[in-house]
Amino acid sequence: MEWAPALFLLLGTLIALMITGLPVAFAFLGVNIVGAIVFLGGEIGLDQMVRNTVASVSNFSLAPIPLFLLMGEILFQTGVAFSAINAIDRLIARVPGRLSIVSVLGGTVFSSLSGSTIANTAVLGSALLPDMLKRGYHPTLAMGPIMATGSIAMLIPPSALAVLLGSLAGISIAKLLIATIIPGLLMAAAFLAYIITRCSLNPELAPAYDVAHTTVWERWKPFLIYVVPLLSIFVVVVGSILGGFATPTESAALGSVASAIAAIAYGKCTARSMLKAVSETAKISVMILFIIAGSVTFSQILAFSGATNGLLNLINGLDAGTITVLLAMLAILLLLGAFMDQVSMMMITLPFFIPLTQTLGIDQLWFGVLMLVVMEISFTTPPFGLLIFVMKGVAPPEITLGQVYRAAFPFILLALTVLSLILLVPELATWLPGQIRK
Known about the structure:
Shape: globular
Number of strands: 0
Strand content: under 5%
């Protein structure tokens, strides 16, 4: 079979199964069975598919994924994260869009402790959104910052998706985790600048209100008690990688232990909350591992059928410039992000994109960061951005889906601006990983 019909058969079958509503993991399983029978020799191919499945999920480099997720779930389920956000709330005084700023700062702090964007958005939405709407905040400045900052959790370490991308694309996981810190902080800075500017120009978007008068010590005490100790967890995780003292897996284990110790120290650790944290971590981890198991075989079938090489030769024959091809790949990711989850996007595109970037000589670490930023944007991209529906779930019933879409739009533009900046200045992604001690 020629490569074009083979590509159409495999991708067409995968998309058709997804459209029916079949879970992504089972969609990959279905197309792999078809591919194994057609391209890998029937029964022999099915045996190979089983071996690939075992080999893919027994990859030790994937171990940080559940550990990073567990870090965030422990802080979320025990309520330690809510205490940290309340402490930041008390610290911020009279500034334009005060609660929106609290959501960005609080979300950025929690992003450094959680590998889960869903947990980040749920914490911020539950803790801040009702008060913001009650005080007359415009939905754009109430829901928008929460969704935008929630998605930063996949950029600032610990990031489960960064670990997954590094493992599947053959990029150093340690360097990729460190490389996303500056882009994540740039995102947060852009959101803060936008909020302050909008609220200064139009104070009615975020009406000011009287904050109870407190002494300097009363404002800083909760911050020193509930935030500074948690930031030490981030220092341990990132510092151990930067210093070359620990692998990503070891640093993730240290972070999970530190989160559990923090919950115990604050007197918030209960058997029920810890069981809930482990249960939620297991659910997400199993979903990711199922998809990985299917996607590895899918990549091999694409290569064996000739579809991967055929598409690469076609693109090379177009004689398009490196930047043009890079922009086309990012545009494809943005388009896919409007309709599917981030893991599925990664699984479908990596078999084509990684060989293509290697052929064109594109820096793999830089491309990995660009890919993660695009996937961060896709969390809030209508119509099916995941965090849009998380926000709709925590928002009051009178908030419409259209309002959530409109709230996300300005922050999508800000994130695209940061993406453009990283495209123009690759050192924003590559400088900090270069400081890792060997």
